[in-house]
Amino acid sequence: MTEGSAAPKAVRLDVWLDVACLFRTRSEAQKACQGGKVDVNDHAAKPHRLVRVGDELRITRPMGRHQLIVVRGLAERHVAKAAAWALYEDRTPPPSLEELEDRRVERAFRAAVRVQPARPPSKRDRREILRLKGR
Fold it and tell me: How many domains does the chain have?
């Protein structure tokens, strides 16, 4: 796109997902597309697919959740987060009470499993670890 030209008519899917702040990075968006986690107009989409205004995206999120997005604007370069939110309309239905409870239980489980060591390993501990690894 050259300087001073009009807004693009279509943008690569992975670029748009990154610019719209739906994924942290373009590479994360690419991996999601390649893994079949993103559908455009009810068809599996590859990262190089062109997205146009009016397209409907379905993004599969962790724990089986789905995010429904309608493209309202296009941008090829990063914009402010407030402007990025204007690029799409989120039509995701609110979570049910069961889904909220499942999320709460999952968060509690992850917090319980995450145990920090009381202290960093000593030289003796590191040697023992290396011995166990067979090095």
Answer: 1
